[in-house]
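Minutes, project check-in
Item: structure for the 208-residue chain
Input as provided by the requester:
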Amino acid sequence: MLSNNFHDEYPLLTYVGDTGGAPFPDGYFDIIVANQVFEHVAHLDAVAAELSRLLGVGGRLLTLYPARFKVVEPHYRLALVHWLPKGRLQQWLIAALVRVGFGVAPPAGMPRSMMGRVIAAYAEQETYYRSNVQIGKLCAASGIELDFELIPQQMLNTKLARLSGWEQTALALLSHLLPLVTMRNVFKSCAAVGSKRGPPTAGVSPLP
C-alpha cells in the first residue's frame, strides 16, 4: 500500500484498506470526487455501493471520465481500438499499431514490440469503457442518481457566453440540429453529478 511508503506524510493515502473499502462510517462525506477513476474500475457495481455507503443522504458525487467512444484513447493514445471488445483482436491490433509507430512512445531502450504488449495488457486489464446508461444504472442500483447533462450544459453555456453575437446564433442553431451535450458525453468526456437518495418515507411510495 502507498501508506507503507509515505506513512503519515500524506495521510489521505492511508484511507483505503486491503479489501478496497474505506475505513469511514456510513454517510461520512457530503461530497466525493471521482476524477478519471470510473474507466479504470473493473467492478463498478462494488465501487458504486461503497461510494453510496460513504455519502450522506443528499450527498453529492462528482465523477469525470473519458467518454466511451472518445476517438483517441487518452492513456495510450491510439484511435478507435478501445471501441473493440476486450480479447485477442483488440490486443493484436494494439500491438500491431504500436509496433509500426502509433501510440505512446516506449521508454528509452524498450523495443516497440514489447511496448505494444505492455499497452495491450493495460487495455485488457486496466481500462473499462461503459456507456453512460450502464454507469447510470449501476450507480442508481446503489442509490446514487447521476445527472449527465448538468455540467456539460453549463460548459456549453459558458462557451456560448464567450462567443460573438453571430457565433452564438450559429452554435445555438446547431444545438437544435445536433444534441451537443449528448455528442460530448459520447465522443469527448463525461462530467456527471450524482445525488444520494434517502430511504423512502414510511407510508409514502417512492417516486418512479
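Outcome recorded: Residues 138 and 202 are 25 Å apart (CA to CA).
No further action items on this chain.
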